[in-house]
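Fold it.
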Amino acid sequence: MIRNVIGSILALIGAAAAVWSPFRGWYDGRLGRDYRVQDLFNGITPNSGALITSVLLPLAFAALLTLIGLVLRSRLLVALSGVIVLGFTALWMVRQGQETGSLTIGGDGNGLGAGMAFAVGGGLLLLLAAAVMTGRRELRRRREEPYDEESPGHVPADDWGPYGPEPNGPPSRQYGDRYGGDQYGGRPHQDDYGPRDDHGPRDAAPPWYTRFRRRRPRGG
């Protein structure tokens, strides 16, 4: 449960960073929304298209896929959204490197910008969230797992522990009727074992053997 909560938070942060990245500068101050999706396959051009046809489209689709994965508790969908974000970001870097000849990082607004960093960070957070989450299959397996009475930590009702029953405590009901006890699991009567002396019972024969000898016909 805790892992699902942590994974959901990481996934939401990653999806938000991916969607916000096109509104930041990607290279030389140019915003990510100014790059068309078709430029990622045909080559970078200075032309700008509509917002819906920019790189925001695949990143928004990845964010939507993330929300669906969180609702269904699907690690696969969350991981797939991270792959989409990182895949399109890597494709843009390849096309941008072909256009400019090399990719540089500058602190004065030139080179790679914060928007690209948000996209990469968002994709990595989505993959991390998929790894942290337990998933729906694991949750279902735990719910359907039968209760094992012999599991560690379970102590049966008649288990007296490693040192045996308490000498002065009540006897176990499990062995009451089997060895001549009463119906409540009490100890056998003293008369069933014959008279006692100072050293304990004289005849330790069980009750059924005593009754058998009494009923045995004499003679012959």
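Residues 2-140 form one domain.
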